């Protein structure tokens, strides 16, 4: 019964996958032009519509929990319609709106070399948590264990949207600072992002710990489920902190172009350490769902420690040289982007993905309230021309950097290092 319901829920989510595939490139297209306000407004509008739509689809139309998945798909397509309309008709995108030609596909190989490791890095981490739900079906009481793990995973995922949004903003800012030859600026971005994220994570985990007996009641009225969730909250709080830190560190890795290294770390942390430990604790030591979550916490702590060590020992001036050495001609025309967009990215990220997490919560609540099984309780379950940029650039450091990019490759790092030192001396920063 549980697997059949999950299958129907997943089938209803399929239309939303295609919408998400359209939303992601449009989001990056607008972010690269610092057009974050349209993203923010469209995300807020989508979230407001989604809340009403989700309630109607779940409780008024008779679709039940599958209505939550249908609401996600419809909301994603509404967001696509708003963003596509803005890109097509807004004057802000006039100069970057280009027809589809063969030149559009130039540089796809370079893009894939970054995109594929990024996708692998994210998937390896997310799949490890989802694997908990699958493995929990083999436990002695799969209905209770699966329900509790689903509640904990949904709560962690919802809380993690904010730190992952900060990580997305940090990724953009780190890439901008490195591209403009400012290693001290990139270092400052990491420190600020980590400070914001750690503060928020401590507050959220502390609140969650204090209200641990209320968390289960948000999803179910079964006392067995509520007490089990309350006992899991201390482990969940650790996951909230590690996920928050890891969200920023992953963003820094993307900004530095180290996606492949982060993918190796994720694979080793979760699949060579975390998941085996989880299986041993759960099935050999018979700790059940707690053992599964302990194993993932072990993997998450290892992942955060390794990524933190890598970030701590980054040689930022050397990283600037590496960034300049692998730039394509198209990248060289985009060395300077404005700096005000970062503070909105995390909120926009939260608004974009809130419909999915809200629907997941609604589906769990519906299952807790409506689905019954006798004797076993309730179930839960175009870049512009060079003249355009050169004529508008008044920063002498920027002009020196661009001029050096046109020099032979073997002399590049020495010249960039000189520019970095010149800028550091001028700003009074090391």
Automatic annotation (TrEMBL):
Statement: the UniProt record of this protein carries the keyword Transmembrane: yes
What keyword terms does UniProt attach to this protein?
Membrane, Transmembrane, Transmembrane helix
Q: Which Pfam family is one of this chain's hits? A: MatE
**Gene Ontology cellular component?**
membrane
Q: Which GO terms describe its molecular function?
A: antiporter activity; xenobiotic transmembrane transporter activity
Q: How does it sit in the membrane?
A: Multi-pass membrane protein
GO annotation, biological process = xenobiotic detoxification by transmembrane export across the plasma membrane
Alphabetical list of InterPro entries matching this protein: MATE_euk, MATE_fam
Q: What is its main location?
A: membrane
Where found in the cell? Membrane
**Chain segments annotated as transmembrane:** 6-23, 35-58, 64-89, 110-135, 147-171, 192-214, 226-249, 261-285, 291-316, 343-366
CDD domains found in the cross-reference section = MATE_eukaryotic
Its domain of life reads: Eukaryota
What's the family?
Belongs to the multi antimicrobial extrusion (MATE) (TC 2.A.66.1) family.
Identify this protein by name. Protein DETOXIFICATION
Recorded source organism is Setaria italica
